[in-house]
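Researcher: Here's a chain I'd like modeled. Treat it as a single chain, no partners, no ligands.
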Amino acid sequence: MDVRHGELETGARLLEALEGVGVLGEWSFDYATGMFRSSAAVSRAFDIAPDDGLHGLPVEVYERAIHPADVSWLRATRAAAPGWSGLRVTEIRVTDGAGRLRWIMVRGRFVLGDRGRPILGYGIMLDVTDYNDSGERPFVTPAAPFVDPLFVLLEALSIAYRASRQVAQAAIERGCRDLLFRTAELLGRARDRTLDEDTPARRRKRLN
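Model: Modeled as a single isolated chain. Structure tokens:
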């Protein structure tokens, strides 16, 4: 097996592990230009061609896939300054290219300008449809997926992994990839336990 083939196989295993815990990938939003960029799986969830998502499209193109009832408050949320932590987490309903309604958790961190308003947002998206048997927003209150160290680590590693690939830092890329794979495995086990042991009613009670 040559090195290139091995790298591709490892990358495929990593994607499989991440998708197994609902990680779609990274996103970024430039407030000045209104351009939204996304990795391949995020783009597909919004019925956008992966290449178009990587190059960037007006955020309104992504909004076409979002449930109409979620668009207005999402715009208001996006425009508001984040809290002291710079972290914002929200959930939206999205219809993908296959016509499936999916619940997407958007985790984002924001860079503020001189006037304290956001100028850049970036983060990851996760498919949390499996957690949402009730048809209600599953994580609208501070809960484990917001602050669980594994989720926080996964977010940081995903961004670091993407950045290391962009700047061609192979050693850092391998380290991030290995840690991502391990973190995804741990999250997968934790998620399976939650879904096996919990009912929607018990889950809502715990969140509240």
